Amino acid sequence: MITFKQLPPNDQKALLRSSAPEILVFSICCFSVQNNSGPDYLLLDKDLVISRNGRQFEAAIRNIVSFIIDTIVEPLREILSDRFELSRLRRIILFNPAAKSTHQ
User: Fold this and answer.
1) First-last CA distance in the chain
2) What is d(CA 28, CA 72) in angstroms, rounded to the nearest whole number?
């Protein structure tokens, strides 16, 4: 199996461009799951928490946080506990065969 570093630089850039938002959101979800952030929280860093019910954000942001918690974080908590499984899922997101401008 080819590794990311073995890909041509243009393919690396194309994969990163095509999957950056998904990997960012998935990484936040994984970090929240691994650190047991609680059912209504997304953990962005050890000391930076976004709450589904937080008053510091507009309703639109709270809706996005709720959507992410409900559709990604909760299912991850239910089915995954192993950081290696989470890492494998990140790779699946990154190595998207439908990414534009990849040669392999």
Assistant:
1) 12
2) 10
Which of 25, 18, 6 has the alpha carbon at shortest distance from 96? Answer: 18
Contact 42, 28 (CB under 8 A): yes
Contact by Cβ (8 Å): 89, 19? no
Report DSSP state, residue 89: H
- What is the residue whose two structure tokens read 């990140």? 90
* Gap between the Cα atoms of 82 and 89, Å rounded: 11
Secondary structure (H, E, C), 14-52: HHHHHHHHHHHHHHHHHHHHHCCCCCCEEEEECCEEEEC
Residues 48-98: tens digit of each pLDDT: 888 888 777 777 787 888 889 898 888 888 876 677 888 888 888 888 777
